[in-house]
Specification:
Elements lengths: L1 H7 L4 H11 L9 H9 L11 H12 L9 H43 L3 H57 L4
């Protein structure tokens, strides 16, 4: 009720943003694209990310990871980065999914309140909140689609690195052969 009262009669955007930040309503995904790209490429970590991303990362990594290669060969490094990248995308998408699920629950409550609202101002405020929630879910959906594209690009980058390393090895063998 306190949340509703603090938001229901806000008339300017600055006040609404301030109230929402105070309540902890924010984008559950990192806004720093470099951090996201590093996580998906397997070179970053979820440390410092909001919500349950770190916990989801660790859970997914531990559930999917079966072997940590020894040594520091190129292939061992790529295997570790790929495992980290997979856990990263699973964590980010899991966080977004949870946030969207929470929003859908809030929308259901708003719709129920709208059905029983008797004051024209309350109806208008509830409709505005519903539209805001819908826009937020659409924005998160676009973020998830972008994450999917970023993950494909990260995987393709790993594949490209693997091909480049293979070609480098071939070139080194050919350069070492004096009878070539």
């Amino acid at each position: 009720m306190a949340v509703y009262n603090s938001l229901s009669h806000v008339t300017d955007l600055a006040s609404a943003v301030g109230v929402l930040q105070t309540l902890g309503v924010q984008n559950p995904l990192p806004v720093n694209v470099g951090s996201v790209q590093a996580l998906l490429a397997g070179t970053g970590s979820p440390q410092g990310m909001l919500g349950s991303i770190g916990s989801l990362f660790n859970t997914n990594f531990n559930a999917n990871h079966v072997y940590t290669p020894t040594g520091d060969s190129f292939e061992a490094t790529l295997l570790q980065r790929n495992a980290t990248g997979i856990a990263g995308i699973q964590a980010l998408v899991g966080q977004a999914y949870q946030s969207m699920s929470d929003r859908l629950g809030a929308m259901t409550q708003l719709q129920q309140r709208l059905a029983t609202a008797t004051d024209a101002k309350d109806v208008q405020d509830l409709q505005a909140r519903l539209q805001s929630e819908q826009a937020y879910i659409q924005s998160q959906s676009a973020q998830v689609q972008t994450l999917a594209i970023m993950q494909v690009a990260a995987y393709q980058s790993l594949q490209q690195q693997r091909e480049e390393e293979r070609q480098k090895d071939i070139d080194n063998v050919l350069a070492a052969d004096p009878n070539r």
